[in-house]
Specification:
The structure holds two protein chains of two kinds. Chain A is mostly beta strands. Helices cover 10% and strands 31% of the residues of chain A. The radius of gyration of chain A is 12 Å and the shape is globular. The A-B interface holds A 29, 31-32, 34, 36, 39-41, 43-45, 59, 61-67 and B 31, 33-36, 120-125, 128, 145-148, 151-153, 166-169, 172-173, 175-180, 185, 190, 214, 216, 227-230, 232, 234-235, 258.
């Protein structure tokens, strides 16, 4: 399956089926990121239940804490 | 004669009605750094009737590149007092009050009581979670604002809308979120974020339509995005009314701050005797003591003890190291 991650095409391994698995498989520490799928921020608890499909657009949004 | 607010009154959709509405409203600005100085400057000039500026820190040389109300002569002075003093000279027709205090779960409800709106200008996630809890509990809306690197984010958190915990249910683990210390901050981004927060504040205070969703802007790439976000009916905070950060035990309030430092809240609520603490310190380094704080260096860390019992240990992001120094020197 191929998705768009932060605007760039990315091929996912066959064992990645849902959004939670996808975020966990990405490099780096993504515990503090906000996840947007196809233009809408996805609630934390819903990531596992959302099955990905070809062409999905995922944005990882870094929380900003400086002031 | 041209009035102070002439250009606002001429503005379509603002008018005398909008200007008069502002004069009867009040805001509390939590934090007086880059965002807080810009927000308080804009809202004071706009004629918001009452402004409370809350900040725990003093002005340092490293603040001057982005914190617009401070000058070199202000170094060592409490930020909220200095900012309020300057803004009183800018607009004497409104009430501007400083409060040198750390926001914590035991005092936040008393501080924000009676205000119409809370503006977030803090530098850490823990305080934002606390603001989120108290906002939902009291029904006073708040406006989140944050900066990092060349980017910033803004979100209005109002009744019936999504809250901060709808998109970030818990405080992320220490070290998992980049900080201003690791990424730096371009000095042009805070004023943009503060301007958006202030504009949203004016809209909310005047009862006008305001922006929904999470606003994200990168000033280097000029990339402006508004992300849609729905309220989570299962959200522990706005969905279920579980105000865990407001109800948290005080001894848990050890916070990693933005500038390679850790804050530890004293378990005692009363103000402390700084002179007595200074006399009891058994250290070789020079001790700075004034009306507001004691500062000394030990083990390569800078320790600042404030009158309200708050301690900031600069030079570490390790809570264990900070707690160890705290307990060694301050019990």
């Amino acid at each position: 399956m191929e998705i768009f991650l932060n605007g760039k095409g990315k091929k996912l391994n066959d064992d990645i089926k849902n959004l939670e698995q996808c975020v966990d498989a990405l490099p780096g520490n993504n515990e503090g990121v906000i996840v947007e799928l196809n233009g809408k921020i996805i609630k934390y608890g819903e990531r596992e239940s959302i099955l990905l499909k070809d062409g999905d657009k995922i944005e990882l949004i870094q929380f900003m804490g400086g002031g | 004669m041209i009035s102070r607010y002439d250009k606002h009154i001429k503005l379509k959709g603002f008018g005398e009605e909008g200007q008069n509405a502002l004069s009867g409203k009040s805001v509390v600005i939590i934090g007086c750094g880059a965002l807080g100085t810009n927000i308080s400057n804009l809202l004071a000039r706009a004629g918001v009737g009452k402004i409370l500026i809350v900040d725990r820190d003093i002005v340092e040389i490293g603040n001057l590149h982005r914190q617009v109300l401070f000058s070199e002569e202000d170094i060592g002075t409490p930020k909220s007092v200095t900012a309020a003093g300057k803004l009183k000279k800018t607009n004497s027709e409104i009430v501007i009050e400083p409060l040198v205090k750390d926001i914590k779960n035991t005092n936040i409800e008393g501080i924000i009581k009676g205000f119409d709106l809370i503006l977030d200008a803090t530098d850490n996630i823990s305080t934002r979670m606390l603001i989120n809890d108290v906002s939902l509990k009291t029904g006073i809306p708040w406006i989140y604002g944050g900066v990092l690197g060349t980017s910033g984010m803004i979100m209005n958190i109002v009744e019936d809308g999504p809250c901060l915990r709808c998109m970030m249910p818990e405080i992320p683990p220490v070290g998992s979120v980049p900080t201003c210390e690791s990424e730096g901050v371009l000095n042009t981004i805070p004023s943009v974020v503060a301007s958006i927060q202030s504009t949203e504040a004016l809209k909310i205070l005047m009862g006008r339509d305001h922006q929904k969703g999470l606003i994200r802007y990168d000033i280097w790439d000029n990339n402006f995005v508004i992300h849609k976000i729905d309220r989570d009916q299962e959200c522990e905070c706005c969905g279920k009314g579980n105000y865990k950060y407001l109800n948290m035990k005080r001894e848990e309030l050890v916070t990693v701050l933005c500038d390679d430092s850790i804050q530890i809240i004293s378990p005692a609520d009363a103000e402390i005797d700084l002179k007595k603490i200074a006399e009891n310190l058994k250290i070789e380094s020079e001790i700075l003591i004034n009306e507001y704080l004691i500062r000394f260096k030990t083990e390569g860390k800078e320790v600042t003890v404030y009158r309200d019992g708050r301690v900031i240990i600069k030079g570490t992001e390790d809570k264990g190291v900070a707690k160890s120094i705290y307990s060694r020197y301050l019990g």
